Amino acid sequence: MNEKTLKEEIIYKGKILNLKKVDVLLDTGVESVREIVEHKGAVAIVVFKENKFLFVKQYRKAFDEILTEIPAGKLEEGENPYDCALRELEEETGYIAEDMELMQIIYPTPGFCTEKIYLYNASKIKKGNVRFDVDEDLTSEWIEKKEVIRMVSNGDIKDGKTIIGVVLYTLLL
Amino acid sequence: MNEKTLKEEIIYKGKILNLKKVDVLLDTGVESVREIVEHKGAVAIVVFKENKFLFVKQYRKAFDEILTEIPAGKLEEGENPYDCALRELEEETGYIAEDMELMQIIYPTPGFCTEKIYLYNASKIKKGNVRFDVDEDLTSEWIEKKEVIRMVSNGDIKDGKTIIGVVLYTLLL
Predict the structure, then answer these.
(1) How far apart are CA A22 and CA A26, in angstroms?
(2) Interchain pair B110, A67: CB under 8 A
(3) Interface contact B88, partner A, CB < 8 A
(4) Any chain A CB within 8 A of the CB of B26?
(5) What is the pLDDT of residues A119-130, one digit of tens each?
(6) DSSP state of B159
(7) Exposure of B159 in the CB half-sphere (CA atoms within 13 A)
(8) How many beta-carbon contacts under 8 Å exist across A and B?
(9) Is B136 tagged catalytic?
(10) Whole-angstrom distance, CA of residue B39 vs CA of residue B27
(11) Residue B110: which of A24, A37, A60 has the nearest Cβ?
């Protein structure tokens, strides 16, 4: 199973993503077009302490909704995922992780996007300083594990990386 | 928390997605740009029978990798998610669901994309006919639950909707 690239066309080069159109030849002999969003990748951090998970509430323009998500952020050019996770956690929540473990590397939408999310678990944290990006506006919140599982099962938590983070943590650790 | 639209520009209208650039004004007074991928949405189906989950193996151009995923597919214009799930399950695996339950509606990448994934659980299935889309090339496979949990925890299963489907099924049902 493979798809050979026949032609590639860059449609758009942007701030957080690029878009390209790729003409491909399948092993079956069929030709098709793949629209591929190029994304630098992101990190997300599961923080669990005293039976509570740490979340941020953030407005998301794509849905015109305020979503409950685990702390997360995009990789900067050349940035190491671990350093990015440390930075984003402190920027968004004011906590500094003293140690983090890579739980999983997730492909959230492999059908059309190259984004990988590096999912970390920060087991030991201490107080630092909240410093949002200039175009971020969010609040952080601790929620009891039992309530989090209820929010996942009834659909109050909709964000993919957040569901994966809390459910994997609950199931595997 | 809100972001007012100041200007919207359509960059690209495509086969499976559109791209737009939106100038926004945050409640904090800051102006920013959001790059938003518009996507019609998708379905994914968890099938569990005799202690095994049903998967498809499919080449994904975005990663140049063959991924293990639960059966899934994109909504056609105006299509009901339930009908889409029925259709995609039979097309990709040859099984007809006699009943399906909506487990969850997931936002896989709310930071930049409008895609919603309707996640179903098909509890009763019977044999139908495999009929791939002309530009699809995939194989289906049953895998034991214990092996699936191992594949999720060691990173052999990377696809977001697949991790959510099998882990939520295992944790909640």
Answers:
(1) 12
(2) yes
(3) no
(4) yes
(5) 999 989 998 877
(6) B
(7) 27
(8) 192
(9) yes
(10) 27
(11) A60
